[in-house]
Amino acid sequence: MIEQTGTTTIGRYELVRELGRGAMGQVYLAYDPHLNRQVAIKVIIESGSDDAYFWKAFQREAKLIGSLRHPNILTVYDFGSANGQAYLVMEYVDG
Prior knowledge:
By secondary structure, the protein is of the alpha+beta class. The chain has one helix and seven strands.
């Protein structure tokens, strides 16, 4: 799931700390060095992102969620897969 390279990363994102976890995944505070901002990353536990059907559905839903604009909905910035696990990169809101 997460590469160990001095700093803990997933994709280009540097993980800072775990914010929480639930039945579907773990959420991390992370840093995006390309855009110089903090983000939240949800890593889907046992997602099966190597499965073509799962990955197609995950991409479709991530794009749909990413198209939503509302003050009460976090913005989705990115999505991807690392070491067989899907992840969503979202706006980080403290609190």
